[in-house]
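Q: Given only this backbone (159 positions), what sequence would you predict?
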């Protein structure tokens, strides 16, 4: 077989990231409908990510945020989103490019997308530790508690 010079894996991943963008744009316009809520895991040191230094120290590789009841000022553009979340009763602004997202899940409808590394096409995912996730209130939430079917692009890649 020949090499995939079209890089269909990257085209699919970009299309799935657009699903995240469209979903969040709809939330900006209409709010979260029904029981919908999002778990969003992102690489804290990816280009364009802007979070407070103490959060970067606490979550050196990845962080998971929950957009459910207490989030403020959600803004979405073509490249990413920004949102205000409360950590220990202090509101902090987070700026997250879509390319930095590694997982997007909506457990209310058993939906999840898992992306390969947002930093480059040749990087591999690192193992996540239980303390590498945070809820909107700033307390740790192990990643294993998320529900939903994860769609991994590895199924479609040549080994």
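A: Predicted residues:
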């Amino acid at each position: 077989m020949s090499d995939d010079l079209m890089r269909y894996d990257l085209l699919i991943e970009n299309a799935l990231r657009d699903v995240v963008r469209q979903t969040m744009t709809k939330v900006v316009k209409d709010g979260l409908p029904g029981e919908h809520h999002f778990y969003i895991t992102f690489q804290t040191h990816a280009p364009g990510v802007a979070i407070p230094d103490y959060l970067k120290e606490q979550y050196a590789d990845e962080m998971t945020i929950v957009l459910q009841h207490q989030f403020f000022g959600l803004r979405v553009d073509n490249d990413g989103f920004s949102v205000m979340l409360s950590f220990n009763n202090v509101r902090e602004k987070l700026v997250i490019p879509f390319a930095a997202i590694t997982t997007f899940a909506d457990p209310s409808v058993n939906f999840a997308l898992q992306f390969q590394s947002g930093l480059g096409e040749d990087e591999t995912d690192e193992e996540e530790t239980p303390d590498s996730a945070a809820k909107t209130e700033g307390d740790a939430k192990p990643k294993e508690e998320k529900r939903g079917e994860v769609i991994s692009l590895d199924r479609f890649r040549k080994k």
